[in-house]
Amino acid sequence: MLNCSAMTTEPKSITPNQTIKNTLAFTMPLLNEAQAAELILSCGQLGSDPSSNYFTPRTKNIAYVICFKGQWFQIRANYFLQPEQYNDFSGGYKRYYQELSENFLASNATKKVLNTLKSTYNLPDNEPILVQVQKSHITIDNAGQCLTGQGIHSDGAERAILVCLERNNIRGAKNAVYLDLEGEKPVLNPFILKQGEGMLWHDNEVFHHVEPAQPLHDNQESSRTVLIAHYPATHYLTGTVNPNNRLGTRMVEESKRLRAKPRQRS
Ligand SMILES: [Fe+2]
Questions:
Q1: The pTM is what?
Q2: Counting beta carbons within 10 angstroms of the beta carbon of residue 66, is it exposed (0 to 12), middle (13 to 18) or buried (19 or more)?
């Protein structure tokens, strides 16, 4: 068994059969290039993400999924509501998105990602998991902008996985994990999550962050596509606070809170 320190400051590569459920955050190779491409294809065309009008443009599809006796099923729901206690910037109102294609759960690459999250943390059957596949569109004009609008934050869940599906002509977009909102106590120092690599973390014990990105070559399209999945997810449907996540959020100025602005829906 690998002795994985929860306080490491370097990303760890851990093979899937090692005991890691108590590690606060770690990385692992998960998909090869063909599997990452297959997963992206299975999502269908990504729809708009109106909240990203306030940071780097992003397109996104979402799905709520459950595992029942080893098979994954999709629940029809096209929104999530993240309580403002976790996201003072874009929490506190229903955010509507296009749902992931029905091909999504037919993809073996998708199933590999979901099964990895479920088995790593012994997640129960029949409990919804929220999956988001999103693409940040980076240009010379928005280079250096925040990719999420949130800074260092928790998503309000308990367990989560982030898989990089594509890095196209970019530098930066380093991920990091911290014990504090100020970023003074690193668990994983900023690092590049490469295509096909996954980062798994305890979302109710540590905060995460992604740094801005810049195009490598100015005259070419630049993007980064990731899959993020969170457990539990019922509170994203109801907008209630997860009693098992008390990490909170950094406050933003009232004028910047999206819940206070006129709604733009996709
Ligand atoms: Fe996040």
A1: 0.89
A2: middle
